Amino acid sequence: MIYLVIAYAFAVAVLGGYLLWSLRRVRELEHPTNSEADAVSSRGPL
Question: Is residue 7 part of a domain?
C-alpha cells in the first residue's frame, strides 16, 4: 500500500512541475521580453 502512496505523490509532483513549467512558458510567449522571442519576431512573415 505504501508503494501506491509513493507512486501517487511522485505523479502529482511530476504533473505539477510540468504544469508550472508550461504556465511559465505561456507567460513568456505572451510577453516577449527575452532574446528568443525577439529572434522569432524579427524573422518576419513566412
Answer: yes
Domain count, the chain: 1
Give the global pTM: 0.56
Residue 5 sits in which domain range? 1-29
Note whether residue 44 is domain-resident: no
Q: How far apart are CA 24 and CA 31, in angstroms?
A: 11
Q: What is the pLDDT of residues 3-46, one digit of tens each?
A: 999 999 999 999 999 999 999 988 888 776 655 555 555 565 66
Q: Which residue has the cell 508503494?
A: 3
**Which residue, chain included where needed, has cell 502529482?**
12
d(CA 28, CA 26): 5
